[in-house]
Write a structure and sequence with these properties.
By secondary structure, the protein is mainly alpha-helical. The protein contains 12 helices and no strands. The longest helix is centred in the middle third of the chain and has 29 residues. InterPro entries: EamA_dom, EmrE-like.
């Protein structure tokens, strides 16, 4: 079960990142973050009401609040990086986010077996190689690298926090709702201040209604990924769940290849193959 839900997480995150990166090339990143997360809040609120999730309220929700405070900054950094650099190069670098939940798992006393250790090494190596060199040999801007690493650390911290925010499925819905609500409050405040200062310009005509479905997909896929990861982490070793979930850059790279016609170089294909091999080792270890 851990492998299945963690792999579902990688697919959902990969597609959400691809969609968010595309939207950010036409709309300010902060606007994309606030709009997509607002849609997620509405849907999650309805789910919490329908499942009676309010009964799960307790001290653990502070973990969700903390994740909500960090989340907008992490997403903003990552979307800006995707808009500045090629997705096939930027996205794999966020695999470093796996270091946070894996470190937490190790601190909690988890000790993966030898096969799983090999799987972790192979999978992470594959994810990094999947980015490959930029076509033409050009280097990625230092600011883009800094933004990507900032987003990676934020993502890893959020994943570790949200997995501690609940122990039941209904509690998970409530935790995700609280996290996303905090995201919207923090991001919305930052957007309001940025617009007032003139540092962020809203799209012509105000809210980008033409991109509503795309925004909804990005927000809901991101929420679903957090949910499937939490289930994976609660039913198996956090170290295994975190590494399998970190395969999402492979999904982003493949989506960029199919939709944007970004060609995979030899090193990228090799990286994808290694990622899949590492997945098999983790699943069978």
């Amino acid at each position: 079960m851990t492998a299945l839900f963690a792999l579902a997480t990688s697919v959902l995150w990969g597609l959400a990142d691809f969609g968010g990166g595309l939207l950010t090339r036409r709309t300010p990143a902060l606007t994309v973050v606030v709009a997509s997360q607002s849609i997620a809040v509405v849907v999650l609120g309805a789910v919490v009401l329908a499942t009676g999730g309010w009964s799960e309220a307790g001290p653990r929700l502070w973990f969700a609040v903390a994740a909500g405070l960090i989340g907008p900054m992490a997403i903003l950094c990552f979307y800006e990086a995707l808009a500045r650099g090629p997705m096939g190069v930027v996205s794999p670098l966020t695999a470093l986010s796996v270091a946070v939940p894996v470190s937490v798992g190790l601190l909690l006393g988890e000790r993966p077996g030898l096969v799983q250790v090999a799987g972790i090494a192979v999978a992470v190596t594959g994810v990094v190689l999947a980015g490959g060199p930029q076509r033409g040999g050009g280097s990625v801007e230092r600011r883009t690298i800094v933004l990507t690493l900032g987003g990676a650390f934020g993502f890893g911290t959020c994943v570790a926090l949200i997995s501690e925010a609940s122990t039941t499925v209904t509690g998970l819905f409530l935790a995700l709702f609280v996290q996303r609500l905090t995201n919207v409050v923090v991001g919305g405040t930052a957007l309001f201040v940025s617009v007032r200062r003139g540092s962020v310009a809203l799209p012509e005509g105000g809210f980008p209604w033409g991109a509503l479905l795309a925004l909804a997909f990005v927000g809901l896929a991101d929420v679903a990924a957090n949910g499937t990861y939490s289930v994976a982490a609660q039913h198996g070793p956090v170290t295994v769940a975190a590494v399998l979930a970190s395969l999402y850059p492979v999904v982003t790279a493949l989506a960029a290849r199919l939709v944007l016609n970004e060609r995979l170089r030899g090193v990228q294909a090799a990286g994808a193959s290694l990622a899949l091999a590492g997945t098999l080792l983790l699943a069978t270890g």
